[in-house]
What does this fold into?
Amino acid sequence: MPLAWIRHKLRLIRYYSARRPLARWQRTADIAVLAAVLLGWPAAWILDIACVSTTALGSAKGRLFRAPDGQISAYLSPDNSFKLTMGDAVYCGAFEIKTSATDHGWPFVTSRHRPQARLTVELFSPRRSLRNADLQLDSPLRSAIESAITDARDTVTAAALWSPQTLPAVSQRRRAWLANVLILSILLPFAAWTIVLVSRLSWVVVHSRTRTRHRLQRCEGRCDACGYDLRAHTLSLRCPECGIQLE
It folds into this structure.
């Protein structure tokens, strides 16, 4: 009796542990999940390029004055409280410096880029607008703005404005990169499995409706494919309307 019971249990274990043929939807789900896991690294790399956000780091405004001898001077002020005249110098323009940083990556920032600061100069006489590229190395406007930034001891703004290569142009965050890969390796398989599950449920609903419609048509004596009335063609093996084989 114990030996027969043991043999019976072993046969049950062998039966239930045997490999079963996978259904089509199960095979599709396995392939989708495996592909999603393998796409974790490429997806993180694509998001690192595609997801870009710009953050303003700061701005500085100032005004330009021209002396009677033609010399130009610039002044910065945090509260923008300037006088329109500085002695004999005449107010002749204004400038604004904006520094920003560009963040890459999702959901965590993997790298931060610090591009060259944007300079805007507005002159009143003659009236014109200038940018960074419009100022030559020996330009008096450039020298005046450099002096104003130096007097304000704003070395970061000066470096970002004229010499962006002196700053850490790219700041890499390897831990954030690995965290993004880990998160995507979890989210993508879950999304793939969800899509396959929703597709399977949709297919089941549509197929059940089709079978229900065919069953109702068969009960009414109609063709399953086209709905033609077959009550007068009971001896025919094919539908006279569409030619489908009748069961």
